[in-house]
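stage 2 :: seqdesign
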């Protein structure tokens, strides 16, 4: 059997050539800046269209591919030249960012698979010829005959054979012989017949062998593009700036949450500690603190916490970076990439079935509390009364002092305890005791959502947004907290501006007050920070210098 061989380059300056390619040939066309930007933006939008498909089957991708073929916004990608050029531009844009590069390869693999399925036999033959792809086949009918009964039996159990009549006339021309290690996916799912380490590969399943072949090529080309990008950073810095901005688009949103995902895309590994102390509910604050302290979370906590920070707007890149920075305290980086990074990408809908998983709600966390050695789930549901006070003291920053003024807590006149140090007295109020009382309500009933709402009220100066509508999810807690903090900051700025105006007037100097729009712009909090007009490349203002001579 001849192995998958070396590439042979072809002239791509012509619009002719095979429909299928691994994009290993460098473009030789002269592009204006306008063409460069247009092609890159179009390819990026093409990727975005496929990334937005959730719970997708191959049929769903085929339907989207068919729509793209006639969509006017993708007309510039329909020639052989533009397809290669746009691929090359976006690959260059993604090369420096490992996660962007991985997503690029993943989406390009989808496009390659769809194109392969839509190609005729001649186009496939040209692809095999270009890349010297050849597989061994049976030369003698007599040698093949002894395997026919076994192939029929295997085919009948293969769900991909929708038309079982094909098995009544099995031909040696339809089967290729490959080493079983070439097609692990098919072996795992028993979609090939194995004999002595050799897999009998039906022509319908060739794509499963070609996909890793295509992926390997893309990874090699990404490495080349990364080196080229380093050179361009000194010779064409304006292009590099554009390329970097191109892949800075936010990961898709919260799916099911009522929060606008685009408004929350500022949560990062650098500011998450401040977010956590101010706006995380006790369940997520507990997991966050344990991640920081132990540099590890067990599976259930890792999933619940990971989906929550995704819902809060943390990008995939930032999420992986956060977990990597903690986990690599005790394990090598390559082990993290091998054992944990996949699960994070899976939660973002970029692996496996590509499901856009949403953050877990309170009912789920209450039903899945974990044991005493774990930190996932609702702590109010998991911990006993004796465990709750030290939990609130150690993990949630609540003062635990003998309550001297119980009436005061019902009036809502409670100081903001955000940032309160452990054990610090707060107006003599046993805030942890108040929360525990809400849980058991003197009857033994466990009102966990009321306890969490009271936790919110104590940490937000008596404000309780859950009196009319009960607290149902950690995301609702986070959203209400960010909105309240945003409103408080606006009020603070308005007071500051009013005081400055009054001070200026008293001195005879008129200070022009800011309008509401200016106030909003001056006090952007993470919740609203990304509601600004996104970066837009003004193509009309570009000159017609080409990329080579610019």
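stage 2 :: out
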């Amino acid at each position: 059997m001849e192995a998958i061989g070396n590439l042979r380059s072809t002239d791509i300056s012509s619009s002719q050539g095979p429909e299928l390619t691994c994009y290993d040939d460098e473009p030789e066309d002269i592009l204006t800046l306008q063409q460069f930007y247009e092609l890159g933006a179009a390819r990026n939008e093409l990727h975005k269209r496929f990334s937005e498909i959730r719970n997708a089957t191959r049929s769903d991708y085929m339907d989207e591919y068919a729509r793209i073929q006639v969509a006017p916004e993708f007309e510039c990608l329909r020639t052989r030249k533009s397809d290669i050029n746009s691929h090359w531009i976006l690959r260059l844009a993604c090369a420096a960012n490992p996660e962007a590069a991985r997503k690029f390869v993943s989406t390009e693999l989808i496009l390659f698979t769809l194109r392969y399925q839509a190609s005729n036999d001649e186009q496939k033959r040209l692809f095999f010829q270009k890349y010297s792809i050849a597989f061994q086949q049976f030369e003698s009918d007599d040698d093949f005959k002894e395997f026919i009964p076994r192939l029929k039996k295997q085919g009948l159990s293969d769900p991909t054979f929708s038309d079982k009549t094909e098995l009544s006339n099995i031909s040696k021309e339809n089967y290729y012989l490959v080493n079983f290690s070439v097609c692990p996916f098919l072996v795992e799912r028993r979609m090939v017949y194995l004999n002595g380490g050799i897999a009998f590969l039906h022509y319908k399943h060739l794509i499963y062998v070609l996909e890793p072949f295509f992926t390997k090529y893309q990874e090699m080309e990404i490495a080349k593009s990364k080196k080229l990008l380093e050179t361009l950073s000194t010779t064409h810095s304006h292009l590099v700036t554009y390329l970097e901005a191109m892949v800075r688009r936010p990961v898709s949103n919260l799916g099911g949450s009522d929060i606008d995902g685009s408004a929350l895309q500022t949560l990062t590994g650098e500011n998450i500690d401040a977010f956590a102390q101010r706006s995380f509910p006790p369940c997520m604050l507990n997991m966050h603190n344990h991640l920081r302290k132990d540099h590890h979370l067990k599976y259930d906590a890792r999933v619940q916490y990971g989906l929550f920070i995704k819902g809060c707007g943390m990008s995939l890149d930032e999420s992986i970076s956060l977990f990597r920075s903690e986990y690599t305290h005790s394990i090598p980086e390559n082990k993290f990439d091998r054992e944990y990074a996949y699960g994070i990408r899976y939660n973002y809908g970029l692996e496996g079935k590509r499901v856009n998983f949403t953050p877990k709600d309170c009912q789920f966390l209450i039903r899945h509390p974990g044991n005493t050695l774990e930190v996932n789930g609702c702590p109010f549901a998991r911990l006993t009364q004796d465990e709750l006070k030290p939990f609130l003291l150690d993990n949630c920053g609540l003062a635990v002092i003998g309550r001297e003024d119980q009436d005061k807590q019902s009036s809502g006149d409670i100081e903001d305890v955000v940032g309160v140090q452990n054990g610090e007295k707060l107006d003599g109020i046993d805030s942890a005791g108040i929360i525990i009382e809400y849980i058991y309500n003197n009857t033994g009933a466990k009102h966990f959502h009321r306890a969490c709402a009271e936790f919110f009220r104590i940490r937000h100066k008596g404000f309780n947004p859950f009196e009319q509508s009960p607290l149902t999810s950690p995301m609702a807690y986070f959203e209400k907290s960010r909105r309240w903090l945003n409103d408080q900051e606006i009020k603070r700025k308005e007071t500051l501006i009013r005081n400055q105006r009054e001070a200026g007037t008293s001195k005879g100097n008129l200070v022009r007050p800011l309008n509401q729009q200016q106030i909003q712009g001056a006090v952007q909090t993470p919740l609203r920070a990304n509601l600004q007009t996104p970066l837009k490349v003004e193509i009309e203002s570009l000159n017609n210098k080409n990329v080579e001579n610019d």
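stage 3 :: structure notes
- The longest strand covers residues 175-179.
- The CA atoms of residues 281 and 477 lie 6 Å apart.
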